[in-house]
Design a protein that fits this description.
The protein is built from 7 helices and 8 strands. The protein is of the alpha+beta class.
C-alpha cells in the first residue's frame, strides 16, 4: 500500500511539471522558436531588452541556464558591464524557451554564434543555474571558472550566489 501511495504521489508531482521538462533537452530545444533582433538595453548580467526584427517594442529576455549577481550585490555591476560588452546594440539570435513567473521571455541568446549564457559562465560573471535543480548545462564551465579564479571567483572568499543573496536581502530596489 505504501509503495502504491508513493507511486501515485510521484506521478502527481511529475504530472504537474511542464511538458518541456519531461522532454529530452534536445527535443525541447528543437521545438523552441528562434528569432533575431538587437539588444537595446542590458538590465543586469542575465536580463536584457531585445527588439525583435521588424518590431518596435523590446522584449524582456531572461537568459536560460544562468544566474548573474543582482546589480546591488558585489559583482553585480561587473556582470552587467560584461553583458553590455557582449551584447548591447548588437544583432542577436534568440532561441525562445517560454516565459517565467515574472512574464519575461526565457531563452538562449547568441551573438555571431557565441552563446552569451555560456560566455558569462565561462568568464566567471554568472553561475550555471537551472530552476529547481540548481545545476544547468554550463556546470562544467562554472567549475573551470572557479578553478581558474575568473571573474566573481577571483576573490579570496567565495561569492554569494544570487539566490542566496535574494534569500537574505530580497531583490534590489528598482533604479
Amino acid at each position: 500500500m505504501r509503495a502504491w501511495l508513493w507511486s501515485v504521489l510521484w506521478i502527481f508531482c511529475v504530472g504537474g511539471a511542464g511538458a518541456d521538462q519531461l522532454k529530452p533537452p534536445n527535443q525541447a530545444q528543437a521545438e523552441a522558436e528562434v528569432w533575431t533582433g538587437w539588444v537595446s538595453w542590458v538590465m543586469d548580467g542575465d536580463t536584457v531588452l531585445v527588439v525583435r526584427s521588424g518590431q518596435k517594442e523590446p522584449v524582456k529576455l531572461r537568459l536560460d541556464a544562468v544566474d548573474a549577481p543582482e546589480t546591488c550585490q558585489p559583482g553585480g555591476s561587473a556582470a552587467r558591464d560584461a553583458m553590455i560588452a557582449l551584447a548591447l546594440r548588437k544583432p542577436v539570435q534568440v532561441q525562445s524557451l517560454g516565459h517565467d513567473s515574472y512574464g519575461r521571455d526565457i531563452g538562449r541568446l547568441s551573438v555571431e554564434g557565441v552563446d552569451l549564457g555560456a560566455e558569462m559562465v565561462r568568464t566567471g560573471m554568472a553561475w550555471a543555474y537551472r530552476f529547481r535543480t540548481g545545476r544547468g548545462p554550463y556546470a562544467a564551465l562554472q567549475r573551470q571558472a572557479q578553478k581558474e579564479k575568473r571573474g566573481l571567483f577571483a576573490g579570496r572568499e567565495a561569492p554569494m550566489s544570487p539566490a542566496l543573496f535574494r534569500k537574505f536581502n530580497g531583490r534590489c530596489p528598482a533604479s
